[in-house]
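Suppose you are handed a protein chain with no further information: no name, no annotation, nothing but its sequence. What can you learn? This example shows the usual starting point.
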Amino acid sequence: MILNKPNPELADLIEDICNAKSWEGIIKKLCPGTKCIDAIVTGSMAQYIPMLEFDCGGIPLVSKCYASSEGLLGINLKPLSKPCDTCYTLVPNMAYFEFLPVHENNEEERSKKEVIEVVDLVNVKLGQCYELVVTTFIGLYRYKVGDILKVTGYHNNAPQFQFVRRKDAFLSIDSEKTAEDELAEGILQAKLFVGQFQLQLVDYTSAVDISLIPGHYILFWELKMEESSKSPELRPSIIEECCYIVEQSLNFVYRASRMGNSIGPLEIRVVKHGTFDALMEFSVSKGFSVSQYNTPRCIKLEEALKILNSRVVGRYFSQQLPGYKILKWKLNKSM
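A reasonable first move is to predict its three-dimensional structure. Written in structure tokens, the prediction is:
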């Protein structure tokens, strides 16, 4: 009854809105009755928050539940809270939950122990980080979900958690390990920097290159101009500065390894527009569910790396040692 005839007035209105110089607040303009945006705003999806906020023009972002392919695990009792404050209350009857304590400072030492104490739901401690383990009705037994969660409070007797990071999402060269949250923080700082030049980071992933000595980390970036979907013309100095910004945010072991030349300069490879769409299509062709897919933040599969490398339009390396500016300032001050 609605779509039985053309509506040229509505078509003209949509065309006028989409032809605007900026798409800021376009969702609100196209759909003025929209009350909220249902989205995932934690973990690797947190990088899309600025893009969503730009498009929605003040419409609240709501992350209503904590779910995975293992099942619905928790709900957000304060859906209108800011994305950075999002926390989830675990629903005890969805699965049997257990927790492996994660000690950020000595995780390697803990992993070498033969016996790891598992904590029940009622015994988790406020402020502590845990790796989630579930036993489900469909047959998973003491299955490690791979998520690291931090206890932030309680609702009645049910603990509330904030998503911290994925346990298995890190880059590694020799003894150095870079966690996903460290990398994401560096990417965020670099995004703010390129934003000054009207550049927008569409998507990214990372990989390790040990074909040369020393090995180094690679970031694959898809960039566009804020007011266009086309690939921009890039100034090498801007992307090289981004390499340095990301390196500055990484852990002390990484920066010490860079200064000791046991890890090479971080590299950013800028790829063509549509590269991450191609990566998704490849993953779906290999059996990934479209509804469950999100961009992997660390690529190890050779076929996926070939897709990314075949679309590279520019390669840029960090031109400075991380920490050098800080060290130089301290030396000058002491003098």
